[in-house]
Amino acid sequence: MDYLTRLNYLKSLKKTILKYEPEIKQALFEDLGKSSQESYSTEIGIVLLELSLFIKKLKKWMKPKRVKSSLIAFPSRSFIYPEPFGKVLIIGPWNYPFQLILMPLIGAIAAGNQVVVKPSEFAIETEHIIKTIIKEVFTEDVVQVVSGNHLVSQELLEKQFDYIFFTGSEKVGKVVMQAASKHLTPVTLELGGKSPCIIVDTKDIQLAAKRTAFGKLINAGQTCIAPDYVLIQEKDKEQFIKYFIEATESFYGKDPLNTLDYPKIIHQRHHERLKNLMNGQEVIYGGQYSETKIAPTLLIPKKDSPIMEEEIFGPILPILTFKDLSEIPKLVIDKPLALYLFTDNKDVKDYIITKIQSGGMTINDTLMHFSNHHLGFGGVGKSGMGTYHGKHSFDTFTHYKPVLFKSKLIDISFKYLPSSKQKESIIKKILK
Fold this sequence. Notes:
Aldehyde_DH_NAD(P), globular, NAD, Aldehyde Dehydrogenase, Chain A, domain 2, aldehyde dehydrogenase (NAD+) activity
């Protein structure tokens, strides 16, 4: 695809999303119980912002870039040409079913690829509106939407693609990577993990609790970068609990199970899983549930509890305490997708940044690194591989092809055989 074709697709996609904004919000409410504000701020608005950036920057990003040539290739000119990989498969999750399909799609189209999209079968209403939008914007040979359950995903993974972009669990990520290896297909895996929220040596526990509650309870905790558990000094624990409860009730009232601002759990199996994770734990706030929702919950986890062995992905927040800063790296599980730190101490900041590896990090807030397209977003280790958002998305779906234009005006003789000590001496000087 040339520049104008890609640009027109992006402009048309933005216009069509704006046209269907009410329907998108309704679909997200039916699938996940998201309020209009939450749907816009965490799904629709982020996608529109990304489209605006791509529309503005695409021409610049598509241009070949001249780079320096090496002395050994003199005389020559060297360039990096961005080209599409070819046919891309995007498999999306159910927790942000609109945003996490559209964001990688924007990058893939901007880079000039053909795309097959597989939305989650658990967010069926959102899948329907995505189908409608894509059908209006793209021809089927450019973007195709494939529906179905995990068996359909398996069938797609058996086919040969030039790039695979997957967002979901670590368990399924391994399946995707194994399937991709059969064709040596490059992958981006956006997974998850147990993202810690560390609170130490901060003057404002109230603000830390409020921002932790916000990050934890958006989408009822069904967010891959939600704070999964809190690490806090014993002396600050009771204050944190008090302010977390205050913040939660200021967001959702005293009866969150019956407010339209508080989302629901995606399906019954996940609902049962979350209830089981609470079993046998010391619940200190919340713990109630309805047929479709689970209330914001604080608890003290028992030793060797399953809740500290797997990503929670719900509105349940375990609280663990520590005495000394040196204990923290041992308490952090694997390499999390996100890490949050609340502190006013520069030495603490430097210690945590350098001692604990994570996909991304926000200091004195939660989730916010996700919103900055200049930073890029992605995991490390078990939390994933590859980066996207903004220019990083364009880069992800682009092969940067090196091209050297060699002049015919001068032909350096010393590079040719037969060999001689004099030629070797010249080569050694050049290659030092």
